[in-house]
Amino acid sequence: MADATEPPRPVDWRRLLVIALIVASAQATLLAALGRRWWCVCGQAFPYTNKPVGQHTSQHLLDPYSWSHFQHGLVLFPLIRWLAPRRSLGWVFAATLAIEAGWELLENSPWIIERYRNATAAVGYTGDTIVNSLADLACCALGFFVARRLGLAKTIALFAAIEVGTIAVYRDSLLLNVIMLLTPIDAIKQWQQAAWG
Ligand SMILES: [Zn+2]
């Protein structure tokens, strides 16, 4: 039995990598089965787009929404750690990635894509490419390890800072996204459309 005086076990990075590869493979396979493309139709290799809405958004490696997936990791690590305090780091990591991959599949389901197009200002949204979706998973994993490193208070501060920063720069954020998906607010939609065109 473990007791309070036992030093924490060193992180088994190889085990975490295997978990990540298993989840990423399953996610890519299911997205391909849903008919998602691997990369943007434009065919250009640039890895990042700065626009919250546009033909390249969610189609290349990174975009403004990469921040929200990083934030998923910031939320999921302390939340799952709190719900399952006795589980190993590998278990918490696997649970986090499974939830994120599940969200990615839901996000690319016809139902959510329609909802984004109708209820929010993301009129041209047609779902993520597989590469973009896998990068979202990687951002979540990064957020997970940052949250583990920072501890709860600093993680909450970082989460808040990203909310403020992404709203200021892109007029969108994780919390705004959740609000607009659940209960669309017309004033926010118009404010976003004014900048997004
Ligand atoms: Zn493109």
Overview of the molecule:
Helix content is 65%, strand content 0%. Helix 2 packs across helix 3 (89-107), helix 2 packs across helix 5 (130-150) and helix 3 runs antiparallel to helix 5 (130-150). The longest helix has 21 residues, at 13-33. It has helices spanning 13-33, 66-83, 89-107, 110-119, 130-150, 152-170, 174-182, 186-196. By secondary structure, the chain is mostly helical. The chain has one domain. Zinc ion binds at residues 40, 42, 44, 56, 59-60.
By helix and strand content, what is the structural category? mainly alpha
Helix content: 55-70%
DSSP strand count:
0
Q: Which runs of at least 5 residues are low in confidence (pLDDT < 50)?
A: none
How large a portion of the residues is in β-strands, by DSSP E? under 5%
Named once each, the bound ligands are: zinc ion
Q: Helical element count?
A: 8
Radius of gyration of CA atoms, rounded to a whole number: 18 Å
Globally, the shape reads globular
- Number of domain units: 1
Q: Biggest sheet: strands, sense, closure? A: none
Order of helices and strands: HHHHHHHH
The separation of the N and C termini measures 60 Å
Integer average pLDDT? 91
Q: How do the strands and helices of this protein lay out in sequence?
A:
Elements: H1 13-33, H2 66-83, H3 89-107, H4 110-119, H5 130-150, H6 152-170, H7 174-182, H8 186-196
Bound molecules: zinc ion.
Zinc ion (ZN) binds next to loops.
Give a short overview.
The protein has 197 residues and is mainly α. The protein has helices at 13-33, 66-83, 89-107, 110-119, 130-150, 152-170, 174-182, 186-196.
